[in-house]
């Protein structure tokens, strides 16, 4: 992991996220091919204290996000929101 500058959540860490397939929507999955080989993409991870679900109250959480870009021509038709 790579240390990133301090932000309002605390120390954010950059990482490589491994996957064999990803879900663009609940029932729409993507993979590099039918064998589903492992691939990697960029992500951010940090610890955060707060409320994620009201009924569970406050807690300590490990949160992450993925860095993305506009979908290419093969993915664009499956996206619900228009790309800008």
Explain how this protein is built.
Residues 1-8 have low confidence and may be disordered. The strands form 2 sheets. The protein has a 4-stranded antiparallel beta sheet with strand order 1-2-5-6, with no helix packed on it. It has a two-stranded antiparallel ribbon with strand order 3-4. Helices cover 0% and strands 54% of the residues. It is built from no helices and 6 strands. By secondary structure, it is mainly beta. Strand 3 and strand 4 form a beta hairpin. It has strands at residues 2-7, 10-19, 22-25, 28-30, 39-51, 58-66.
Descriptive tags:
84 residues; mainly beta; four-stranded antiparallel sheet; two-stranded antiparallel ribbon; disordered N terminus
H and E string: EEEEEE
What structural class do the secondary elements suggest? mainly beta
Task: Give the biggest sheet.
Answer: 4 strands, antiparallel
Mean residue pLDDT: 76
Please compute the radius of gyration using only Cα atoms: 16 Å
Indicate the overall shape: extended
Q: Level of helix content?
A: under 10%
Helical run tally: 0
Structure, briefly:
The chain is mainly β and 84 residues long.
Mind sketching the topology for me?
Elements: E1 2-7, E2 10-19, E3 22-25, E4 28-30, E5 39-51, E6 58-66
Antiparallel strand pairs: 1-2, 2-5, 3-4, 5-6
């Amino acid at each position: 992991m790579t240390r990133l500058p301090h932000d309002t959540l605390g120390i954010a860490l950059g990482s490589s996220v491994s996957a064999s397939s990803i879900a663009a929507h609940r029932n729409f999955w993507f993979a590099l091919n039918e064998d589903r080989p492992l691939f990697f993409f960029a992500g951010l991870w940090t610890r955060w204290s707060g409320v994620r679900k009201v009924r569970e109250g406050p807690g300590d959480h490990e949160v992450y996000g993925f860095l993305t870009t506009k979908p290419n021509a093969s993915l664009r038709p499956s996206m619900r929101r228009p790309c800008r």
